[in-house]
Amino acid sequence: MTNNFKDWLSMDVENIEPMNLSDSKKFEMKQNILARSHKKKNHMNLRHLTVAAIIVVSAVTATSFTFPTFAAQIPFMQNIVGYFDNEDTIYENYSVFATEIGQTQTSNGTSVMIENAVFDGTSLTVSYAIETDVDLGPSPRMSDPFDVKGASGIGSHGTIQKISDTKYVGVEKITPHFEKNIPDELEVSWQPKSFGHSTTNEVTGDWEFNFTLSKLDNDIQLVNQSITNHGVTVLVESLEKNDLSTVINYESVVKEEILKQWPFVSVQFETIQDDLGNTYIVDSNGGTSHDKGVTFKLSDTIKSIDPKAKSLTLTPIAYFSLGSGIGMEKKEMDSITIELK
Asked: Of 254, 123, 248, 246, nearest to 178 (Cα)?
């Protein structure tokens, strides 16, 4: 291991400072960042796109790549999620269940390395690192998202953090949406063309990654409990539980007269507690709509539920907006309590 790489092991994680977001900013991000969808490579008539507040479903052109990858031993790239770790999130057990990918590629003097990834049956989470001599700023962005073969639409969100003058670590959560059943194994590709905030703080290159990922074994509990408030109905359909996470699958239905006043209405569970008093941080996976926002199929992820818990109480929050965070209203709905099996 070179001295350059040893720097990774001596980084002070405590110096990485988290950022808080306002409710309005969270809502805006849900619509404009979290809801990224893939488009066809040919031009599309925008009039035929379905309006969706969280993610728009569109066709995806899947491509197979053949290129050399380096399954290298990268000792300094150990437990990248440790830089983002929080005991109340799925990162708590991420390293235990993640599959080692161990691929690295270098282009134009910048190395990009994928450490590992995990697929809980709904979303996949990938940890990676970047080494470059260019100052990309404290929180750079990547130009191109991860792609999943066969997905009709993809929502994703993540973050990249600077941890030294030349090194960055990132975690990306990707939620693919399929027209039919979710496959047991995903074929994932990633072809980022640049990283940075602007042309003056940016690196460009030709990196290409391709790997497969099998889903964790899930225990599915059917729920089918609903609540209606403020012209919005929320139906919790099922829970998908494994040792890493719990996925809440649910549906929201908005009365059409509400949509005339508020064109963008979304729902998320922001407070989830069990009967033992544990509170679970919620990570939204986004959702899909095929009827201009009247109905949404959605899911949220929390860490694995305490095995001693006997019930789970979910409080949905309905967001009403004119678009881009304008005139936003937030209304709490009645709680739903689910008896765990």
From this structure: 123
pLDDT interval class at 243 (50, 70, 90): confident
128: pLDDT confidence band, cut at 50, 70 and 90? very high
295-303 and 219-229 strand pairing: unpaired
What does the alpha-carbon distance between residue 203 and residue 198 come to, in Å, rounded to a whole number? 9
Q: How confident is the model at residue 180 (pLDDT cuts 50, 70, 90)?
A: confident
User: Residues 82-118: pLDDT tens digits?
Assistant: 666 555 566 777 888 899 999 999 999 999 999 999 9
Residues 6+ apart with CB under 8 A from 258: 230, 231, 232, 265, 320
**Rounded to an integer, what distance in angstroms lies between the CA atom of residue 241 and that of residue 303?**
9
What span, in angstroms and rounded, lies between the C-alpha atoms of 257 and 129? 48
- Residue 140's contacts (CB-CB under 8 Å, 6 or more residues apart) are 160, 162, 168, 195, 196, 197, 201, 202
Residue 97's identity, in one-letter code, is: F
Q: Judge whether 124 and 100 are in contact, CB under 8 Å.
A: no
Identify the residue with better confidence: 277 or 243.
Answer: 277
Measured CA to CA, the distance from residue 96 to residue 81 in angstroms comes to 12
